[in-house]
């Protein structure tokens, strides 16, 4: 594995920081139950009026996930969100997640209107992989197959041969490696390293990172394990290698929920965005879930196990966009056509895998 750190755009970190500075602190929102039900009803009516369905990611706030389920939408990982949105008969999709998820929905369903509660919700991985820099990197290695994580812009996807999510990345890289292909991987360095270790594939790895998963530390988790010696540790592979090394189960959000069900442990220490607790606790109501500690402590940390951009998806924003349709995802049709190829490849591959 070669280190591609010198190839990342020099200003990627400052772009991420600028975005974070604009957001302010992430606050927990506890709604009065009566008010919440009122908002749910208003939004359900607005969804019906617009022939729309709500597609939410596991990392959204529990209220948003509950609303998606209550209104016949879906709560899932980005792969399943893409499939659900594409196959649902609604003419409008309201995507509660981050921008690349909205773009993916538009690419797969160009005939549908894609709304988001805010177009400001982005992702440090997407920001850390500007298309011009990335294209130059790819051009410098023309003999490599370009595989990008779903957490990228439509333009970066359009430059790729394959798109993958964390739930199918290992299998797809394994497949490409079996064909003797050399791989460019972007943008998450930790996931890239994890896949490389699993598959032994020849990979050039971009050095992007998720600001949430990067905060987990092996030492904090080991200390917590000492307090709960019978607990299992669940880790998302966007976390640093030392954190992955102390895990009992490593996987995508959906795979971690499955692991919570299949592992015999009654207590689980979970190293991923705490938004996942909503669905995970539903899946294992009798088990105790504990948030893995992060490096940042107390109020100074804006990414303490909750993505600040996912937190921008609020009930008020969902209602507003349904009433005003003013946060619309658009992707240039030509770019979308090109970006659809690697996305379709992933969807076909993962469907075959499932079958
Ligand atoms: S949790 Fe990390 S990978 Fe997911 S959207 Fe937020 S910054 Fe991106």
Automatic annotation (TrEMBL):
GO BP annotation list: 'de novo' NAD+ biosynthetic process from L-aspartate
Keyword terms: 4Fe-4S, Cytoplasm, Iron, Iron-sulfur, Metal-binding, Pyridine nucleotide biosynthesis, Transferase
One Gene Ontology term of the molecular function aspect: quinolinate synthetase A activity
Matches recorded under InterPro entries: NadA, NadA_sf
Biological or metabolic pathway of the protein: Cofactor biosynthesis; NAD(+) biosynthesis; quinolinate from iminoaspartate: step 1/1
Cofactor(s) listed: [4Fe-4S] cluster
GO cellular component annotations of the record: cytosol
Enzyme superclass (EC): transferase
Family matches, as SUPFAM superfamilies: NadA-like
EC number: 2.5.1.72
One Pfam family matching this protein: NadA
Protein name (Swiss-Prot/TrEMBL): Quinolinate synthase
Origin species: Acinetobacter calcoaceticus
């Amino acid at each position: 594995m070669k280190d591609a750190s010198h190839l990342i755009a020099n200003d990627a970190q400052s772009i991420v920081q600028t975005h974070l500075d604009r957001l302010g602190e992430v606050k927990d929102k506890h709604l009065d139950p009566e008010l919440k039900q009122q908002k749910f009803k208003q939004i359900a009516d607005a969804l019906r009026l617009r022939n729309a369905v709500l597609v939410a990611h596991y990392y959204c706030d529990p209220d948003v996930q509950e609303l998606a389920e209550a209104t016949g939408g879906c709560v899932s990982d980005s792969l399943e969100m893409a499939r659900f949105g594409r196959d649902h008969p609604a003419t409008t999709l309201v995507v509660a997640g981050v921008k690349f998820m909205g773009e993916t929905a538009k690419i797969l369903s160009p005939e549908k209107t894609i709304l988001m509660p805010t177009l400001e919700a982005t992702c440090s991985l997407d920001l850390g992989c500007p298309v011009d820099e990335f294209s130059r990197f790819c051009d410098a290695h023309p003999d490599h197959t370009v595989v990008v994580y779903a957490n990228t812009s439509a333009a970066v996807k359009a430059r790729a041969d394959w798109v993958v999510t964390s739930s199918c990345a290992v299998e797809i890289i394994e497949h490409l490696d079996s064909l003797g292909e050399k791989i460019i991987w972007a943008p998450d360095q930790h996931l890239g390293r994890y896949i490389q270790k699993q598959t032994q594939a020849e990979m050039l790895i971009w050095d992007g990172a998720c600001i949430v998963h990067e905060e987990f530390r092996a030492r904090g988790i080991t200390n917590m394990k000492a307090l709960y010696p019978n607990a299992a540790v669940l880790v998302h592979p966007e976390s640093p290698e030392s954190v992955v090394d102390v895990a009992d189960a490593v996987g995508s959000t959906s795979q971690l929920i499955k692991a919570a069900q299949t592992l015999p442990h009654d207590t689980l220490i979970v190293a991923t965005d705490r938004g996942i607790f909503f669905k995970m606790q539903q899946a294992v109501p009798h088990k105790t879930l504990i948030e893995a500690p992060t490096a940042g402590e107390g109020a100074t940390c804006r990414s303490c196990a909750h993505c600040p951009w996912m937190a921008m998806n609020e009930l008020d924003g969902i209602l507003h966009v349904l009433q005003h349709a003013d946060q619309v995802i658009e992707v240039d049709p030509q770019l979308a056509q090109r970006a659809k190829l690697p996305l379709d490849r992933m969807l076909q591959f993962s469907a075959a895998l499932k079958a």
